[in-house]
Amino acid sequence: MSIVLHNGCLGSDEIVNDTEETQGRSERRDAAENRQRILDAALRLFEHNGVEQVSMNQIATEAKIGPGTLYRRYRNKSELCLDLMKENIIILFENIEAHLTQNRTAPASQRLKGVLILFIRFREKKSQLLTGVEESTTTNRFRSRTQSPLYVELHQLLVGLLDEMTVTGHTPPDSVFKADMLLMALSSDSYSFQKEERGYSSEKFLEQIWLTFNFQDV
Amino acid sequence: MSIVLHNGCLGSDEIVNDTEETQGRSERRDAAENRQRILDAALRLFEHNGVEQVSMNQIATEAKIGPGTLYRRYRNKSELCLDLMKENIIILFENIEAHLTQNRTAPASQRLKGVLILFIRFREKKSQLLTGVEESTTTNRFRSRTQSPLYVELHQLLVGLLDEMTVTGHTPPDSVFKADMLLMALSSDSYSFQKEERGYSSEKFLEQIWLTFNFQDV
DNA sequence: ATAATAAACGGAGACGTCTCCACTTGTCAA
DNA sequence: TTGACAAGTGGAGACGTCTCCGTTTATTAT
Fold first, then answer.
1. In angstroms, rounded to a whole number, what is the distance separating the alpha carbons of residues A97 and A47?
2. Which helix (H) or strand (E) holds B78?
3. Distance B201 CA to D1 C1' (A)
4. Dist. CA A189–CA A135, nearest whole Å
5. Cα distance from B156 to chain A (closest Cα, Å)?
């Protein structure tokens, strides 16, 4: 599972690229079959029990394969969820791309807001799976999050927009840093905490982000 | 293990309060002894192997007690780390209190900066243990982080300062939200990521936080 | 077809978290 | 002192992640 970084503007189709890097050789027939079983089993279990509640073990059992086989394909649940979200990720990036070209002449802050809105919508749509993607059993949660191609891609995008927005005259705030903070603020953990514990709606949340990061009006 | 919220300004001594809520009855002798063994064992193992690498199992074995006994006292490693840091937490809050009264008349933004500096120093000093405190095996990492009394206390403090700093005339950014974001930005995950992956020094990190959140100069 | 071979498989097992509960032990009132 | 009993204990065991490695299977060259 890998999302291929592309040169220049977003190429929605190339973003999610399965099979190992640059075609080693096509997938063996039995392997392909098993992968489908895994995906089916996972989806079934996720729907019945919720993503959080389902263990890799259960998935293996449901798919009637050994744990080793499951782990060979997906190092953890996070990777599996990512694979299950391929579709939606592609759509997200297509939407972003469309929005970005449509508003090509608008101020960067406006384009940024649009991107954030699209991302929040995306998050809402498949919140459980996305939380699954961002989760990680192993130590260094943030580290694994930031290594995910989804993160890298979005980060790059944000850096571009933030750079454009930099107010000339002030000390330039490092856009890389700012993008990291922004993505952290938009993470599952943060988002669901604000919604559930602090009682914010999506709109209020976004508004607060905007105020906190002190972006330009509208 | 509980940190008692206090009324009004910081009462450094009351912040860390052991034994269960408001004295149920004093700890049994054998229990007290075991707790000491646990603390000793944990410290020993942490020093030799690093906090991350040590499991609750190992601690129990090293302390020569059953796993059940260990878990009865500390629901997880995080709580154990918190107990191990009591001293340092008290000192942190004492320092903050001192700084706050010393600069009582200075602008809130300056006081805030001081608090952040003290916090970063605190983090540096016991980084491993603090990371341990913020870690959590269970689902909902952020949730458990935010429920920790250390979080609640700091959050309260920040809200106070941020409220003072609110520029009259702008849309008031919710200080509770801002404080959440700030604490998230200062979390172990974030801090160590910026230091190790992005190559920031403590000073640069703090500077970027300042710029990102767009606080007043100095 | 068939042999060679690399990929894929499965499950045992190491190690981890955490719970449950029958048993022991400290404490305190009588 | 002693007995009642809450507090504390320990370890078996349920369940989870993840690895290792001997065996099976698909593919491809012959």
1. 31
2. helix B77-84
3. 68
4. 9
5. 14
What kind and span of H or E run contains A145? Answer: helix A141-147
Out of 3.40.50.2000, 1.10.3720.10, 1.20.1340.10, 1.10.10.60, the CATH code matching A12-76 is 1.10.10.60
Q: Who contacts B158 (Cβ-Cβ below 8 Å, separation ≥6)?
A: B112, B115, B175, B178, B179, B182, B183
Place A216 in a pLDDT band, splitting at 50, 70 and 90.
Answer: confident
Q: How many CB atoms lie within 10 A of CB B128?
A: 14
Q: Cα(A60)–Cα(B160) distance, rounded to whole angstroms?
A: 51
Pairwise CA distance, residues B146 & A197, whole Å:
10
Answer whether CATH 1.10.10.60 is correct for domain B12-75. Answer: yes
ipTM value of the model? 0.89
Buried b (16+ CB within 10 A) or exposed e, B176-202: bbbbbbbbbbbbbbbbbbbbeeeebee
Paired residues of B168 in beta bridges: B170
What residue type is assigned to position A83 of the chain? D
Burial zone of A110 (CB within 10 Å; 0-12 exposed, 13-18 middle, 19+ buried):
middle
Chain A: residues touching B (Cβ < 8 Å): 52, 135, 137, 139-143, 146, 171, 173-174, 176-178, 180-181, 184-185, 189-190, 192-194, 197-198, 200, 208, 211-214
Q: Where are the domains of chain B?
A: 12-75, 86-213
Contact A176 B194 (CB under 8 A): no
Nearest CA in chain B to A181: B185
Burial of A8 (0-12, 13-18, 19+ CB in 10 A): exposed
In total, the C-beta contacts within 8 angstroms joining chain A to chain B are 84
Using one digit for the tens of pLDDT, what is the confidence trace for A12-52? 444 455 544 455 568 899 999 999 999 999 999 999 999 99
Domain B86-213 CATH class label: mainly alpha
Task: Note the CA–C1' distance, A17 to C24, in angstroms.
Answer: 61
pLDDT of residue B186 exceeding 80: yes
Cα separation, A30 vs B85, whole angstroms: 53
Sign (positive or negative) of CA dihedral A116, A121, A123, A124? positive
